[in-house]
Amino acid sequence: MSGGETTNTIRISLLLIVFTIVSASSLCAADYPDRSVKVIVPFPPGGATDIVGRIVMQRLSERLGQQFFIENISGAAGNIGMTAAARAPHDGYTILLSSSSIVVNPSLYKSIPFDV
């Protein structure tokens, strides 16, 4: 994939994520979110996922009136951060923002501590 195709793929993916979050929040209780939302990015700060995530989460914060903050938990090709997201309380206040590694890693590693 060329750089332009990768950028377009990332943009489309992020637009779908934003649409899903905004749509889901309008269908859920009217007071969601009523506190800050943690967004786990399983890669180091400064990478493509982190940068785009920060831009998207800033817009969500403005639109929904609550803070969406990025927590970078990198390591093991994203597996450490993805595991942290899988083990987080299932209350909608921890979101995982990942790349295709979430579906690729299960085929690369003998075992992973989460089920995609």
Descriptive overview:
With 116 residues, the chain is mainly α. Helices cover 51% and strands 11% of the residues. The protein contains four helices and three strands, in the order H-E-H-E-H-E-H. Strands 2-1-3 form a three-stranded parallel β-sheet. Strand 1, helix 2 and strand 2 form a beta-alpha-beta unit. The longest helix is centred in the first third of the chain and has 25 residues. It starts with a helix and ends in an 8-residue tail after the last helix.
Annotate the secondary structure layout:
Layout: H1 3-27, E1 37-41, H2 48-64, E2 68-72, H3 79-87, E3 94-96, H4 101-108
Parallel strand pairs: 1-2, 1-3
Helix pairs in contact: 1-2
| CATH topology grouping | D-Maltodextrin-Binding Protein, domain 2
Mean pLDDT: 86
Number of domains: 1
Compute the CA-based radius of gyration: 14 Å
Please estimate the helix content.
40-55%
Number of helices: 4
Largest sheet: 3 strands, parallel
- Number of DSSP-assigned strands: 3
Residue stretches low in confidence (pLDDT < 50, at least 5 long) are none
Structural class: mainly alpha
The sequence of SSEs as H and E is: HEHEHEH
Strand order of the largest sheet: 2-1-3
Shape: globular
The CATH homologous superfamily name equals Bordetella uptake gene, domain 1
Strand content: 5-15%
Distance between the termini: 24 Å
What would CATH call the class?
Alpha Beta
CATH architecture: 3-Layer(aba) Sandwich
